[in-house]
């Protein structure tokens, strides 16, 4: 798989080749060469190819992996500034922070900018089962980050300590 920098370099070379074929097409028309219309087609194809490789280089972004995070699923995403992710009830406090940071990196999208808010809130929750047939959602924390900066250094994490205590109380006890 190509890195972004490699694709940009290839797009530059394709752009140079497009310009060369464009100049050849112009020269072909000036001297009335028989292949002048083929050169126009080649130039057009090269321009489309250059644009496609350049656009591909913009779309590829490998998100950094935050160590210590756990797998989560996105259960609510308004497409604007509100996201909720779900994690297993066996999660620990350091894992919650790492998972919130990972989710903040993963759900960033510049398309969320135009929705009126400049901050995104990502909440993390789990589901407890205090009794058979009863499910209780339990919010464990949230992170607020900027919608305009991809890797926000000033993201604030808030953990709900009372819910974390409830999580440790309801964790299954090992049987001897």
Question: How many strands?
Answer: 5
Q: What proportion of the residues form beta strands (DSSP E)?
A: 15-25%
Mean pLDDT: 88
**Class of secondary structure makeup:** alpha+beta
Total number of domains? 2
Contiguous uncertain segments of 5+ residues: none
With helices defined by DSSP (H or I, 4 residues minimum), what is the helix count?
A: 4
Pattern of helices and strands: HHEEHEEEH
The helix content is 40-55%
Anisotropy-based shape:
rod-shaped
Radius of gyration: 26 Å
- The end-to-end span amounts to 50 Å
The largest sheet, given as strand count, sense and whether it forms a barrel, is: 5 strands, mixed
What would you note in describing this structure?
It is a single chain. The chain has 176 residues and is an alpha+beta fold. The chain folds into 2 domains: 4-59; 73-169, no CATH class. 42% of the residues lie in helices and 23% in strands. It has helices at residues 4-30, 36-59, 93-106, 161-169; strands at residues 73-77, 82-86, 119-131, 134-146, 156-159. The chain has a 5-stranded mixed β-sheet. Helix 1 runs antiparallel to helix 2. The longest helix has 27 residues, at 4-30. The chain is rod-shaped and about 85 Å long. The two termini are 50 Å apart.
What does the secondary structure layout of this molecule look like, with pairings?
Elements lengths: L3 H27 L5 H24 L13 E5 L4 E5 L6 H14 L12 E13 L2 E13 L9 E4 L1 H9 L7
Parallel strand pairs: 2-3
Antiparallel strand pairs: 1-2, 3-4, 4-5
Helix pairs in contact: 1-2
């Amino acid at each position: 798989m190509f890195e972004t920098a490699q694709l940009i370099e290839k797009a530059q070379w394709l752009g140079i080749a497009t310009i060369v074929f464009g100049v050849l097409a112009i020269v072909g028309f000036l001297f009335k060469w028989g292949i002048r219309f083929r050169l126009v087609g080649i130039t057009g194809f090269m321009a489309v190819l250059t644009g496609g490789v350049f656009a591909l280089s913009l779309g590829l972004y490998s998100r950094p992996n935050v160590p210590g995070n756990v797998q989560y699923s996105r259960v609510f995403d308004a497409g604007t500034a509100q996201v909720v992710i779900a994690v297993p009830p066996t999660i620990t406090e350091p894992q919650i922070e790492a998972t919130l940071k990972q989710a903040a990196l993963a759900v960033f999208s510049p398309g969320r900018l135009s929705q009126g808010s400049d901050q995104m809130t990502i909440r993390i929750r789990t589901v407890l089962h205090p009794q058979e047939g009863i499910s209780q959602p339990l919010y464990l924390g949230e992170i607020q980050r900027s919608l305009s900066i991809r890797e926000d250094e000033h993201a604030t994490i808030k953990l709900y300590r009372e819910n974390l205590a409830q999580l440790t109380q309801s964790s299954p006890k090992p049987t001897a």
